Amino acid sequence: MTDCLLIVDDSPSMLMGVSIALHPTGLDIEEADSAEKALQVIDAGLKPRMILTDLNMGGMSGIDLVKAVRKLPGMGFTPVVLLTTESQDDMRQMANAAGATGWLVKPFDPDKLVALVKKLVP
């Protein structure tokens, strides 16, 4: 299977925008519109090189997703970055404690996002 990146967001427009922004990375882009669906596709065999997730979604939050991913075999060191409108330090600390690799605030700069992905997924 080719290298892929999993984007998790409950906003269809955000999924599309992030997917378009990440096209220059050369990675296959997989999308999930909820944390629960992300876990389903991972359980079904998807092994993403990186996960970009929203924080606030219906059902499981992005932080809950990070915690769940970190418990999965082979996913302990997969980069997981939260891409969110939240900017409070306490939320960042919660994400960091859960095992998140990084944090980007929306709206994002596409060039910075691509640079981050290329840094985390060489």
UniProtKB/TrEMBL annotation:
The keyword Phosphoprotein applies. Keywords: Phosphoprotein. Residues 4-121 form the Response regulatory domain. SMART domains: REC. SUPFAM superfamilies: CheY-like (SSF52172). It comes from the Bacteria. Pfam families: Response_reg. The modification 4-aspartylphosphate is found at residue 54. One of its GO terms (biological process) is phosphorelay signal transduction system. The keyword Phosphoprotein applies. PANTHER family: CHEMOTAXIS TWO-COMPONENT RESPONSE REGULATOR, STRESS RESPONSE REGULATOR PROTEIN 1. This is Two-component system chemotaxis response regulator CheY.
